[in-house]
Amino acid sequence: MSGNHANNPEQPALKLTHLSLENAAKILSTAMERIVPVGVIQAHVDAGAPQNADGTLNLVEYAAWLVREVSHGSD
């Protein structure tokens, strides 16, 4: 992420605490090596996943929410 900023200073650096849903989907898709559609993330937000007041996503808080959801589903 910061590598892109270093190569292109006009491109703003991504912040894991303030990502658009589209950028979150791109990062998660790369990390998981499979496509994570924006619609899945939006469905999670609609179901109660935390979102910043400006509509962005904090990837750390989102990941913690997902872990809680998965652990509650396996009770």
Features:
globular, 4 helices, mainly alpha, 0% strand, 56% helix, 75 residues
Task: Provide the succession of SSEs.
Answer: HHHH
N/C terminus separation: 37 Å
Percent strand equals under 5%
Shape: globular
Mean pLDDT: 89
Characterize the main sheet.
none
Work out the number of β strands: 0
* Fraction in helix: 55-70%
Structural class: mainly alpha
- The count of domains is 1
Please tally the helical runs, counting DSSP H or I stretches of 4 or more residues. Answer: 4
Radius of gyration: 14 Å
The parts where pLDDT drops under 50 for at least 5 residues are: none
List the helices and strands and how they pair.
Blueprint: H1 2-7, H2 21-32, H3 38-46, H4 59-73
Q: Could you walk me through the main structural features you see in this protein, from its secondary elements to its overall organization?
A:
This protein has one domain. The protein contains 4 helices and no strands. The protein is globular. It has helices at 2-7, 21-32, 38-46, 59-73. The chain is mostly helical and 75 residues long.
